Amino acid sequence: MTITNLTTMGESEEELRDKIRAQLERIGENIPDMCYQCGKCTSGCEAMKLLELEPHNIMAMVKTGFIEELINSEIIWTCVTCFKCKERCPQKVAPVEVLFLLKNQAVAQGKEIPVNLSNMFQNVLTQGVVQMPLETRTRAGEGVKREDLNLPELQLPKDPAKFQNVLMKLAMEEV
Amino acid sequence: MAKYAFYPGCIVSTEQYGYEISARRVLSELGIELEELEGSSCCGAPLRHVNLNLTQYLSARNIALADEMGLDILVLCPNCHLALRDAKQKMEGKEVRSRISEELKGEDLTYQGNENIYHILEIFYDNIDEIKKRVVKPIELKGAAHYGCHLLRPSETGGVDNPENPSKMEEILKVIGAKTDRYPERLNCCGGPIYFHKPDAALSMAGDKIAALQGKFDFLATVCPYGQRMYDSKQEQAGKSIGQELGFPVFYLTQLIGMALGIDGKELGLDLNLSPIEKALSTLMAESTVPDPDDEPE
Lengths: 175, 298
Ligand code: SF4
Ligand code: SF4
Description:
The structure holds two protein chains of two kinds. Chain A is an all-alpha fold.
């Protein structure tokens, strides 16, 4: 099933559309209205072959206002962020950036998001990095920790409380 | 002597240790001095999916820390490189600048944005003559290059080379004695950014590229911890996902330069590569520095 099948019942949500537009303008990106559906983005999309992501389709939907459907769909989480669509679009539209904003919107609405992303988010909030140093292994199968390798200590924010305060505040705010 | 604030990034410094060890060792060999970017955090790139404010803030705070040191930033990860450069570009906008500067006060930081952000590939390329002069053990093999998406695109922000036809890695490979060639899958994504929530698709993407290289090249060189994670650390699983036996040597470019400069394999973290690099190494290095292939599990 493609995204379009999911949306035939959808209604245009002008408010959400305007919000995404305003956010795009704020981050310096063209709005999807500039897209003339040439399909160049989709033809080179790294997530198209295996995961059926069609960025030109996403642009058409955002333009028309089928935002809620996209936010509820798993499809927005398939983008590998290769940035080919942004690089190649003849209209200087950036599907990858629109997808970031759709995902941000999904998070803001409390939708379920891939668990590894919420874990990373938690880790950065609480400790400043996506994960604490892992034990890896050598080809010979021996366990290796960061401290075994004579590397300097991992850098972390000096004042975790202040760091967390700022991040918590920003996380609550819309883009 | 050139000196930089060193920013390995989360994935390198918590998991891809071979990159950090070899980068530090080779840079010092080239007379490039590093200082730790004290108090640094995640660049925020992985949080773009969650909230772009956080990415902007996290990158800006790391740049502000480099401002305090008065040093340009040297980055290992293409994803960090793009996030930092993008944040710097956005800080040129009045609205973003004043909003983020206000928040930075919460950590007693001031953003100036005076310093440049360089990826290690740029540093190597700028020092290509110096590298050439110092080669003592040429890498006499045929190598393929993987740049990493975020090092090339979007070219207007993070790009360090031609976005559709880059050549800096190939030029460096030639200088250290290797043969190289372009190949059709060269700009394909490794699948890394979706590995944890779409593992099958990500592994197939990685596996397809390795399968295409096997038999045509002797090794793959990367400058991206996501790419290395997929092509090297997860090569076995990638093979399973495409139903093919894969056994292809994958190195960080830093490790290859290090070997060419005559640095011992141990000091380059070569025992941390999980792909069968012995295949390439046996012709290159004295046996004493190569971990015994018989020690391999299975
Ligand atoms: S490449 Fe640009 S103009 Fe063409 S379909 Fe994609 S977003 Fe629209
Ligand atoms: S950035 Fe995402 S949407 Fe754009 S081409 Fe790459 S995978 Fe497709």
